[in-house]
Amino acid sequence: MRKEVQKYSIFIFILFLFPIIVVNFPSTPEQVTKAEPQRNSLMVYAENLLESDVPQLQSKSTKALVYFTHSHEAFQPIVQNKENLTAVYHPTSNIMAFEDTIKSHFDLNGIQTEFLAVDTMDEMKKKNRAFHEAYNVVRPFVDKQITENEYDLIIDLHRDSAKRKTSTLTYNNQTYGKIYFVVGENNPNYSKNKDYAEQLSVHLNKLVPGISRGIFGKKGEHVDGVYNQDLAQNMVLIELGGIDNTEEEINRTISVLAKAVSMALQDQNSK
Questions:
Q1: Please, are residues 128 and 108 in contact by the beta-carbon 8 Å criterion?
Q2: Percentage of the chain with pLDDT > 90?
Q3: So where does this one cross the membrane (predicted)?
Q4: Which run of H or of E encompasses 175?
Q5: So what's the pLDDT on residue 270?
Q6: Dihedral over alpha carbons 98, 99, 101, 105 (to 10 degrees)
Q7: pTM confidence score
């Protein structure tokens, strides 16, 4: 009986690794060219991870909330390809369009993911609010969501305004959109939020050295300085890539972010 179970376990493990093996060992250049449009994002963006980086499902179920304060932030190459426009903000081809990719990779790493069901910038238009008021507009929605539900991590996801030279990393012949974290130091308890951001940054750079640009603290005049992080100690603001990053680069980075989140939450759960 034990041998039967061992055989079954090995079979399942091989099935799990098979997509990565397929990506790394194409049959012919012609087949690669023909298959390119059909490549599954979960296969493409795992191809540079080592065997030790294969997601290990967590023993404890974890839950994350993701929302977008600047919901129409967009990546110029994506808007150009899909809308034939040169723009860094768009009502549909924007950072929110990555929800399915985020959910898929977070699920793969044992993280149940929910998205705040609000388009902040649409709400701002309805209420005739200025761009700098975005954090105030989204705040009651976030507050209600986290009051009624428990989350291990809350992510406010943005697209940075940096140009390609600053926002892009090449690692093992693949390009990624870099990540950095913003901590609002006008929040009296910002050190707790900073701890979460630092843990994520460390794990990101363990997986792909240099993919995290680190932690940026902001306070004082002409900045929000809190970013709603006073609502929860386990809330982080992430800047994902920059205006010039491609869809493929952002997808690769999301796959690494999902693994880093899983590792950081495992650390938290073991304390």
A1: no
A2: 75
A3: 7-25
A4: strand 174-177
A5: 76
A6: 140
A7: 0.80
Cα torsion for 179, 198, 254, 184, to the nearest 10°? -60
Q: Which residues, in sequence order, are bridge partners of residue 180?
A: 239
Counting other chains too, the contacts that 191-196 makes at CB distance below 8 Å and 24 or more residues apart are: 192/233, 192/234, 193/229, 193/233, 193/234, 193/235, 193/236, 196/153, 196/233, 196/234, 196/235, 196/236, 196/264
**How many whole angstroms separate alpha carbon 87 and alpha carbon 159?**
13
Could you tell me the domains of the chain? 1-39 (no CATH), 44-269 (3.40.630.40)
> Is residue 161 classed as helix, strand or coil in its secondary structure?
coil
The pLDDT > 70 percentage for the chain reads: 77
User: Is the CB of residue 190 less than 8 Å from the CB of residue 183?
Assistant: yes
**pLDDT of 89:** 98
Token code pair at residue 178: 């870099």
Strands 212-218 and 179-184 come out as: parallel
In contact, 64 and 152? CB cutoff 8 Å: yes
Per-residue model confidence (pLDDT) at position 27: 39
**What are the angstrom distances between the C-alpha of 24 and each of 28, 44, 50, 198?**
12, 9, 12, 32
Counting as low any pLDDT under 70, the low residues of the chain are 1-60, 271
The residues, any chain, with a CB within 8 Å of residue 115's CB and separated by 6 or more, are 65, 66, 67, 99, 103
